[in-house]
Amino acid sequence: MIDQQRQAICEGNAMTQAAIDNFFSMVEAFMDEREAKRDAAVAKYRELKEANRRLKEKLAHMHEKYDVLIEAYNELAEEAYARDASSSSSSSSSSSDDDESPFSY
After folding, report:
1. Fewer CB atoms inside 10 Å of the end CB: C or N, the chain?
2. For residue 101, which of 83, 81, 76, 71 has the smallest C-alpha distance?
C-alpha cells in the first residue's frame, strides 16, 4: 500500500515536473518570438526614419529649385512686360491698357 502511494506521488511529481518544463519552454518561446518581433519593429522604424530624412532633404532641394525657377520666371515676366509697355507707349501715346498685364487672357 505505501509503495503504491509512493509510486503515485513520484509519478505525480514527474507529471508536474513535465508540465512545469513544458510551461517554461512555452514562455521562453514566447519571449524569443517577442524579442524577434521587437527587433524587426526597431529595424523597420530606423528604415522609415532614414527614408523620412532623405525625403525631407529631397523636399528642401526641390524648394530651392522651385525658388530659382520662380525668380527666373518673374524676371522674364518683368522683361516681357517692360518690352510690351515700351513698345505700346512708342506706338500710341495715350494707351489705357498700360495697367493690364500682357499675360491676361
Report:
1. C
2. 81
**pLDDT score recorded for residue 16:** 87
Question: Mind listing the pLDDT tens digit for each residue in 18-66?
Answer: 888 999 999 999 999 999 999 999 999 999 999 999 999 999 999 999 9
Judged by DSSP in three states, 96 sits in coil
H/E run at residue 101: none
> CA distances (Å), 8 to each of 12, 15, 22, in order?
6, 10, 21
Residue 105: the pLDDT is 42
Q: Are 46 and 54 contacting, i.e. CB atoms less than 8 angstroms apart?
A: no
